[in-house]
Amino acid sequence: xxxxxxxxxxxxxxxxxxxxxxxxxxxxxxxxxxxxxxxxxxxxxxxxxxxxxxxxxxxxxxxxxxxxxxxxxxxxxxxxxxxxxxxxxxxxxxxxxxxxxxxxxxxxxxxxxxxxxxxxxxxxxxxxxxxxxxxxxxxxxxxxxxxxxxxxxxxxxxxxxxxxxxxxxxxxxxxxxxxxxxxxxxxxxxxxxxxxxxxxxxxxxxxxxxxxxxxxxxxxxxxxxxxxxxxxxxxxxxxxxxxxxxxxxxxxxxxxxxxxxxxxxxxxxxxxxxxxxxxxxxxxxxxxxxxxxxxxxx
Amino acid sequence: xxxxxxxxxxxxxxxxxxxxxxxxxxxxxxxxxxxxxxxxxxxxxxxxxxxxxxxxxxxxxxxxxxxxxxxxxxxxxxxxxxxxxxxxxxxxxxxxxxxxxxxxxxxxxxxxxxxxxxxxxxxxxxxxxxxxxxxxxxxxxxxxxxxxxxxxxxxxxxxxxxxxxxxxxxxxxxxxxxxxxxxxxxxxxxxxxxxxxxxxxxxxxxxxxxxxxxxxxxxxxxxxxxxxxxxxxxxxxxxxxxxxxxxxxxxxxxxxxxx
Amino acid sequence: xxxxxxxxxxxxxxxxxxxxxxxxxxxxxxxxxxxxxxxxxxxxxxxxxxxxxxxxxxxxxxxxxxxxxxxxxxxxxxxxxxxxxxxxxxxxxxxxxxxxxxxxxxxxxxxxxxxxxxxxxxxxxxxxxxxxxxxxxxxxxxxxxxxxxxxxxxxxxxxxxxxxxxxxxxxxxxxxxxxxxxxxxxxxxxxxxxxxxxxxxxxxxxxxxxxxxxxxxxxxxxxxxxxxxxxxxxxxxxxxxxxxxxxxxxxxxxxxxxxxxxxxxxxxxxxxx
Lengths: 298, 259, 273
Fold this sequence. Notes:
CATH architecture of the largest domain in chain A: Orthogonal Bundle
Largest sheet of chain B: none
Radius of gyration of chain A: 24 Å
Order of helices and strands of chain A: HHHHHHHHHHHHH
Shape of chain A: globular
Helix content of chain A: over 70%
Helix content of chain B: over 70%
Strand content of chain A: under 5%
CATH architecture of chain B: Orthogonal Bundle
CATH topology of chain B: MetI-like fold
Distance between the termini of chain B: 13 Å
Structural class of chain B: mainly alpha
CATH topology of the largest domain in chain A: MetI-like fold
Largest sheet of chain A: none
CATH superfamily of chain B: MetI-like
Strand content of chain B: under 5%
Number of helices of chain A: 13
Largest interface: A-B, 73 and 75 residues
Order of helices and strands of chain B: HHHHHHHHHHH
Distance between the termini of chain A: 31 Å
Number of strands of chain A: 0
Shape of chain B: globular
CATH class of the largest domain in chain A: Mainly Alpha
Structural class of chain A: mainly alpha
Oligomer: heterotrimer
CATH superfamily of the largest domain in chain A: MetI-like
């Protein structure tokens, strides 16, 4: 337990006023990679992951411990996943696999686009204009406590096709997070900046472009990351209950058809696609809010 | 949060808020009446109210509350019992973190609901699988919040403690633990929200009890106002349970009030 | 009156090396601080004063040179100092534990070192708070009292351990001018009571001369001592001193030296730390 105490105590304060000699994503990545490969951390990282796989293998395939014996083991799953002729019809060599991934991604992308397109302006406006927030905030607070997945039946009822209900559900998941964080973003801006801009004679449009927008940016991007997570979260529910394709549907369908290795494949795929999408947003966000990162080094 | 009622009743904010909420309900009622596409499919407030009155005296409705609450409580408590110590351990010990954290990072992006089928296959009873999924919903949030909380502890506090002669054990109990407590509580509140979300969906997918199933039944049986009643009940239940967590949290962090 | 607490800093050097960018923060810096001396270190922002203080406190190691406390090796390249209750730090933004009441904060040290049992520690702390005029806030949390009160309570938290050395890192920086004068008076009273060695960092010249027995003016980074100024003003001091001719003369001298360094730092584009 105490080795982190010594880790924290004698740390030199990093002098932040000197910029690293080189910057840029590639440089940082290689630097991190080098650090990781040479650190003792890697050993433990591998130990953890390998230990987990071995344990999983032993429990399911070797000793067939009760409860675990019904689950597919790692070897079985990987074999199926990378087989040219998969027993259950899903592997990296079958077009169906990519169809499921593609459709799920498309739904998330559409919903995320809608949620961002509507949520960011609404959130920013709520934070900026009191009149607007007076009218909209109560409605938001009225609807927000309802967990997004409780909307599933209503969504199916409201929208004519399955496709639109799933996209609507996914949209709901991201929308509230986006609005709330954009709103918080504007609220986090020092009021003095608005007064300074006003006394310098800035127009409303200029205040929005030069203060509201850049000032709220860090929060907006945190919101987008969260909302991406929620989008995948509710997508799975929507697809499980109403889908005909997509990774969530694949999981449910494989359960019904007792094709258990496919469930695991689909779960891992979901995790991978989900992390890739949030990584993408982080990178975009990092580029757009560089000034904030620099200032935070103070 | 203290509300100054006298000030509030005079304020424009309240009037505007009431106006828009009233407008919201009127539009909802009208759109249901005139069968506006999409929104018109939502049962009108008056129907919902009638349904709510019926359900209120129905034992099955309260039974659904009970089952959902039971699942939430069990799953949530197990998540805390396992998640809090694990989070603390990961926050304090670099080696444990390096061993276990990658696993958490790998599993976390998998939406909790994707676990439902595996969980149903694995656990011998439906109830257990339901509780397991609920547990998962809160578990990762709690662990990650504690780790973040510990990482965010101001180094000044650790230095001040060691400067005052505190040993590592004292630093653990008297600095790191209380300093990370607020983020533990934030993790619990967020985790509670996610837990409700998960349990509701899991009930729709894999059982025939609980508030989630009640809502789903409204859809399947064509009793549409029941859907909205179910949603409102779930919203209320979630709101109340977060409130309880916050209240308990305030008791444990007296220094955060009155600042 | 203690006769211990002499700090001897011999050619202290510190190089930071974040991501391969070598930054020389302390260069061959030497100081001799006598026992019970109120030494104030003045220098432009970011010049490495805090680096020196942290090395004495034992928060990080030096990359060259040595620091001795009462003739015993405290810190060198091979042997980083351990933080200890003989050298207590009062931090720039204050580091009272927000989750403990003022009283609990003050008993933290004696209890952590197991010097007193809880009842005795409490009694001792209350007594100290009484003499320091802080008895009224004993049961409040730090977040509930003013920042001036917090600073004083933090000094009390240090003093209950009767440290040989009190290390203060711009403790009054965030206070407004009025609160600051009260805090100065408070610190001087504390100092006059037991005369610990004080190592006080600031970039406020008035504060430096008003408090110090010796002012060390540092160069801009890498920091070395540029000028040592003896402040032979009588103690106990109070605010009337500020108007005296001696004070004005010392201040002028000090300002000249600091200004040269500040200009250098300014043209080098230093940022505030």
